Amino acid sequence: MTFTSIFILPYFLYQGYLMRILRETKDVENNSLPKWNNWGGLIKDGLIGFFLSLLITIPIVIITYIPIIGEMSFTVVIVTQLIGFVASLVLYYIWFALLTVVMRDGISEMFNLHRIGSILKSKEYLIGFLTLFVLGFVAGAILGLFVLVTLGFGALIIPILIVPFNFLIFGLIGLAVTESEQNPTENINNKKSNL
User: Fold this and answer.
1) Where would I find the H helices in the chain?
2) Are 91 and 56 in contact (CB under 8 A)?
3) Residue 119 above 90 pLDDT?
4) CA 18, CA 38: separation in Å to the nearest integer?
5) pTM exceeding 0.85
6) Are 24 and 30 within 8 A, CB to CB?
7) What is the DSSP secondary structure assignment for residue 8, as one 8-state letter?
8) Rounded distance, CA 149 to CA 153, Å?
9) Which of 66, 106, 114, 155 has its CA 20 to 30 A from that of 140?
10) Which residue has the higher pLDDT, 183 or 175?
11) Quick check: 13 pLDDT over 90?
12) What is the Cα–Cα distance from 26 to 54, expressed in whole angstroms?
């Protein structure tokens, strides 16, 4: 699917499968990958995931690349790169929770700010996201070293290595959302009012 994504349709099938992982991790007891069936449903979910990803991709691209294309000063480029990095972390933090909720309960849940907010404030979700960040950093360093050692030829197998890593990412984030909703943390304001 990854190698044939240049033909567009396999890309949406693959994205739809990642969305299915988010949906099926709602059941914590389920410890296997979803089946590759109902390809029409996979394509539909892949399209939803793609368009929701544009919500975070477009602002990040604007912040990080407009100064480079506009040939602004080195200082401006460095500052906007740092802002873009921080913005991407924040936006991805929100995006994963939003995507999981939409995949599980429909597009209308995208506007359920109470539910999204409680997921984002939970320690389960924060730990899950930080785990992904650390794993991504370590995997990126290992892959970069692998490409250097193989004089660039290692880049040819990176798409194969990224596939199980993507499965891990979406599985972990799906479970983190599930745990955050099964163990809702009490709001600080509620604790104060109870005192």
Assistant:
1) 9-24, 39-69, 74-105, 113-120, 123-149, 158-182, 188-194
2) yes
3) yes
4) 14
5) no
6) yes
7) S
8) 9
9) 66
10) 175
11) no
12) 24
